[in-house]
Specification:
- The chain has 328 residues and is an alpha/beta fold.
- 21% of the residues lie in helices and 29% in strands.
- The protein has seven helices and 16 strands.
- The strands form two sheets. Strands 1, 2, 3, 4, 6, 8, 10, 12, 13, 14, 15 and 16 form a twelve-stranded parallel β-sheet that branches. Strands 5-7-9-11 form a four-stranded parallel β-sheet, with no helix packed on it.
- Helix 2 packs across helix 3.
- The longest helix is centred in the first third of the chain and has 22 residues.
- The radius of gyration is 24 Å and the shape is elongated.
- The relative contact order is 0.06.
């Protein structure tokens, strides 16, 4: 005796309510159980759309003859399957007026512009696009690129990009409405200029080509810069404007002479409370003088340094150094 399909006969609003409980991927699998569920699914208001190639491959049933193919052939098939899956999903979906967040994570050469266009067309507020570069896919050639117009989108408030080719060497943000911006391992960038009034959080973890950074966003609250482990051929320029709202600053592998940089910039950071410095170019004498600083980290220093702290409100001090003399 075949069990009756009672769910498909429910009202659309009730099915939508049921679909709100499982995860995004589980709801997709649920939608293929019947034509009725599939039709209702494509009208289901989604606040979050997430494509993850790793999860997609883990849940896929593998045919027995798959191991007969070479690694390159299997990677091409993975790319084709994931591309087809995302394209088919977006093609079938109607406008998503409830869409708030769009996430994409992939491991291979993949044109993400179709996904980004869909997100922007539906006025997504948060976009997280990540490409994990893997050696297994190096034989396929190419890079994962994204249209730089995404920085000018009127709806996006949170933008996180990682492992992508931005198609530009200079990024300038002035009238952007983005409030939180994260750019990691986007190696084409050489210059970053940020002057947007709306920006509150900025994070950059880029390669050795990024040598010129200027931050002048007056409402910025948190700034993180990581120059990566690969040394640059030239010294970096990291210039900060008067950032009265900045509370947290983290510099790692910045390849700047920290003593000179502090003299030029620390006094501009009136509201600074948290400061972390790791693996920068130190001078023999470094003075940190700030009336509001509460937490300070000085990490992985391998040179002899005299560190002087004039920080009356300091409550936390973390030092990991080879040879360091500290006076408070």
């Amino acid at each position: 005796m075949v069990a009756a399909d009672r769910i498909s006969n429910l009202h659309e609003e009730i099915i939508h309510h049921i679909m709100s409980f499982p995860s995004f991927s589980e709801a997709i699998r649920m939608s293929v159980l019947s034509k009725r569920l599939n039709s209702v699914w494509h009208a289901f208001p989604l606040p979050v759309i997430e494509f993850d190639q790793e999860q997609f491959e883990e849940k896929r049933k593998r045919p027995l003859d798959e191991m007969l193919y070479s690694a390159s052939e299997r990677n091409i098939q993975k790319m084709s399957r994931f591309s087809g899956y995302t394209e088919d999903f977006l093609r079938r979906r109607g406008p998503d007026s409830f869409l708030r967040k769009f996430k994409l994570r992939n491991h291979c050469v993949f044109d993400v512009d179709r996904c980004v266009d869909y997100a922007l067309e539906n006025r997504v507020q948060e976009s997280d696009i990540r490409s994990d570069k893997e050696e297994n896919f190096s034989s396929l050639g190419g890079i994962v690129s994204i249209n730089p117009d995404v920085f000018a989108a009127k709806s996006i408030r949170v933008l996180k990009l990682s492992g992508l080719e931005l198609g530009i060497q200079k990024l300038i943000l002035t009238d952007s409405l983005i409030e939180e911006l994260s750019i990691n391992h986007c190696d084409s960038l050489e210059t970053v200029r940020v002057f947007s009034d709306k920006l509150l959080f900025f994070e950059s973890r880029c390669g050795p080509r990024l040598l010129d950074i200027e931050i002048g966003s007056p409402n910025l609250q948190s700034l993180t810069f990581d120059g990566g482990d690969e040394l640059t051929e030239e010294s970096r320029k990291i210039n900060l404007g008067v950032l009265e709202s900045l509370k947290s600053l983290s510099l790692r592998n910045a390849e700047i002479v920290i003593e000179l940089w502090i003299k030029e910039n620390l006094s501009k950071l009136i509201g600074l409370e948290n400061l972390s410095i790791e693996v920068c170019q130190y001078s023999s004498n470094v003075q940190i003088s700030h009336p509001r600083l509460k937490n300070f980290e000085f990490l992985n220093c391998t040179e002899e340094v005299d560190l002087e702290l004039v920080t009356p409100n300091l409550v936390s001090l973390v030092i990991l150094a080879y040879c360091l003399r500290v006076s408070v």
